[in-house]
Design goal:
single chain
Amino acid sequence: MNEDHDIFLAANLGSEITRLLHAKAESSLDRMRGSYERACDIVKEIRANTGSGGQSELGVLQTVLDDLMQSRPVLSVRAETLQAYFLPFVHKVLRI
């Protein structure tokens, strides 16, 4: 994979997580599930194309995704923190 594609995937992952957060705020389980599944697929694709150095970070992202789907999340990750994490990828995609 090339770097541009990986950045594009990361930006798309951020979009799906944002959709998941909005759906969760609206208690829309179907939309949450759809965004979660798309986000997990993106994580799997990135994981398949990433060396061992990025695997732990992808594992953390997967844990955060899984936790977001729980009715009683264990983690206290703020929506703003997640969105800020992905913002540089979005900006880079917009410049490509």
